[in-house]
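Q: what does this look like with iron/sulfur cluster bound?
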Amino acid sequence: MRIRIDRARCVGNARCAAVAEHLYPLDDDGYIAIDGFEVPPGEELMARRGAKACPERIIFVEDDD
Ligand code: SF4
């Protein structure tokens, strides 16, 4: 499972990091600092919750086939 983030459209409200700070790091200005990551085993639920928390809907869950 992978997370992809349309980083250019981040508005910096930090909702993703509020849910899972260790998965969704922010930069010094409070915007998402990464454009995606491979979800570590056992972190799937938190990754999904963080994605759902984004009001801009720019965090996408890519499930393995
Ligand atoms: S919740 Fe969405 S808009 Fe807010 S910081 Fe995270 S990625 Fe950016």
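Helices lie at 15-19, 44-53. Residues 25 and 34 are 7 Å apart (CA to CA).
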